[in-house]
Structure prediction request, 338 residues.
Amino acid sequence: MKILLHTGKFKDVEKSGVGRAIVHQKKALDLMHIPYTTNPDDDFDIVHINTIFPESLMLAKKCKQMGKKVIFHAHSTEEDFRNSFKLSNGVSPLFRQWLKLCYGSADLLITPTEYSKRVLEKYDLGKEIIPISNGIDLEFFKADKDSRKRFRKKYGFSEDDKVIMAVGLYIERKGILEFLELARRMPEYKFIWFGYTKPALIPVKISEAIKNKADNVYFPGYVDSSELKDAYAGCDLYIFPTKEETEGIVLLEALAMKAKTLINDIPIYDDWLKDGVNVYKAKNIDDFEYKIKLILKDKLPDLTEEGYNVVKERDIKKIGYKLKKVYEYVLEKDLINK
Prediction:
């Protein structure tokens, strides 16, 4: 069994969750000693596709013609495409049709969560959908004794500063407007947002909000995983005000780093994250403000160990095992059908 892990146009998704998922898959396959290639001219049995570019669909169709099995990793939905880039809401119905074309070309779909599986089942794709987390590399995402110090020194924060961080693209869906409003309401705290989006793709409303940000907000842009790891360790609170996700790899990273965490109370997290048990949730911006203050004043119990226990079940080694089982299942189904 050999896998073609499709990485075409990787540079276009490298700084997104999809790019991070591809890196995780490589690591998972390596850990499980599953032979794979990224070269479509090599021999292989299954192609595993993460992107939804036209060349992704063309590759899927070509592989089907060659008698290869096709797995599409369904990271995207119409629901999480809305409120993202310029014109996204206007073209979201067309985006849904495109997703149906891409996903419909597969023999089987993998999607990160039970929630995203339920969303995709409403698309009437007629394909089996298996939920498998994108996973987290727990060997990598752990702090060392100097992580906090490095982060604070790099960005000029003192030990007394209370620092609140978030990670994501500059899009409305990620909750960036709420983040900026929270910073305006709480000038006594520092707010730092990691991530980057090409200016041409950013809606005017978001660009204007960033330009007029409060003085206690910092936008360092995209940073690599090592620097982000220091930020999780060095901040006082990680917040995730996103309004729609298929999983949220950055949330897994924050929990793995045992950062105090406050997330938006949205349906995707109902199944596996419980408010006041392994994470804190906020229902609206006022609730975010209220709970931020309680957490930073140590008036709520520390749930970082409980959050870490959640991501332990999504360790990259366990994900590799699940991927292996899916690959074997697809090939076995093919043999039975023949």
About this structure: The chain has a mean pLDDT of 95. Residues 281 and 287 are 9 Å apart (CA to CA). The first helix runs from residue 10 to 13.
